[in-house]
Every structure is written in C-alpha cells, then in structure tokens.
Amino acid sequence: MAIIETEATLHEAHRDNHTHRDVNGGWLRPAVFGAMDGLVSNLALMTGVAGGAASQQTIVITGLAGLAAGAFSMAAGEYTSVASQRELVQAELDVERRELRKHPECEEQELAELYVSRGVEPVLAREVARQLSRDPEQALEIHAREELGIDPDDLPSPTVAAVSSFGSFALGALLPLLPYLLGATALWPALLLALIGLFACGAVVAKVTARSWLYSGLRQLLLGGAAAGVTYVLGTLIGSAVG
Fold first, then answer.
1. What is the chain's alpha carbon radius of gyration, rounded to the nearest angstrom?
2. pLDDT tens digits for 125-172?
C-alpha cells in the first residue's frame, strides 16, 4: 500500500513539474514582434525628426503617422503571411486525405515503416499502424504530424495574428509618443519612457522564453537605443544640410 501511495505521489509531482509552454499558438510571435517593432521604429522615427530640429507639432504628427501606418502594415502583413501558410498546410492536408482514401493500405504500410525506422518492432509497428488507421480522421492527424510535422487542429489563425500585431505595435509605438501628448516639449521624456519600455518588453519576453530577464531586457534596450541614436545623428546631419 505504501509503495502504491509513493508511486502515486511521484507521478503527481512529475505531472506538476513537467509542463510545457504553448509554442504553437499564433499570437505570441506577432505580439512580441509587434510591440518591439512599434517601440523601436516609432522611437527611431521621432528621434530622427527631432534631430532635424523639427517643432513639437511636427514630432507629434510624425509619431501618430508612424503609429497608424506601422500598425496597419503589421496587421496586413501578418494576416497575409499566416493566411498563406494556413492555405499551404490545408492543401497538403488535402493531398494526404486523398491518398488515405485512394490507397489506405499503402498509407498504413508507410506509417508502419515509419515506426519501424524509429525502433519499434515490425510486428508491433504494423499492429499499431493498423489500429490507428481504422479512423480516417485520426489517421490523417497522425500522418500530418509524422510526415508534415503539423497538428491539423492547432493551425495559427490569421485573424489572431493580425489583431495581435496591430494592438501590440500600436501599444509599443504609443510609448515614445505619450510624453508629447501629455505636454512634453523636449525629447528626453519620450526617450526615457521608450527605453524603460524596451527593457520591460525584453524582460517580459524572458518569462516566456526562459532566458535571463536581465540579459533579455538589456539586449532589447541596447538594440533600441542604438537605433534611436543612429537616426538622431542622421536627422541632425540632414537637418544641418538642408537648413
């Protein structure tokens, strides 16, 4: 009895400690990329204009235009990209579905050979393939996973990707613009808030990727700061040349 209870406790502990992050969802990549892109691109755009000695009104208009254009562009690009990928996957699934309908024996043998190549005994592999192939939809799902490396029930959504990109880009792009909208007349409040946002975004991403929050935050801070610095210098040079 004690042995059974110990095994049950170990199984419970293993289950609790053996969880995985969702790596197949369609929201994470566009959301993270959108927020980072919005912060860096709009900060760089605004610092470039500020470096050219533009007025506060011009900087605000530039920031708003960058926010709107970037958010719509990101959403459209993500929607088209994910929709095209989904259509390609669906086309491949249709091919596999036709093969299962026309040549079920060959597909069953193919699945058995795949299991054999992975170390399963031939007799057992054939029996497993036979049982799994009895349900056409289950067979399609297994062939898709084994041959194409995809899960037909977990395909990314173009709408989710587009909405995630739009919202996260707009939120990121709003940070450097916010101080100006609240009445700031100098660049440094916008720069400070944007750099804090860059570090925070990098640190939050580390919670998902299991990287060090300090490393991830500093990396994003340095990359975004470098982009802003380069565009500020370019804006200053261009402003001096055309002034």
1. 26
2. 888 888 888 887 888 888 788 777 788 777 888 998 888 889 999 999
Q: Is-contact 181 64, C-beta < 8 A?
A: no
Report which of 24, 5, 87, 56 is spatially closest to residue 190, judged by C-alpha positions: 56
| Residues sharing a CB contact under 8 Å with residue 50, sequence separation 6 or more, in sequence order | 59, 187, 232, 235
CA–CA distance, 82 with 161 (Å, rounded to integer): 7
Distances (CA, A) of 123 to 130, 138, 153, 176: 11, 21, 30, 65
Place of tokens 């259509």: 87
The rounded Cα 155 to chain-centroid distance in angstroms is 14
216 to 48, 87, 152, 164: CA distances (angstroms): 26, 34, 33, 21
| CA distance linking residue 216 with residue 219, whole number of Å | 5
**Whether pTM exceeds 0.70:** yes
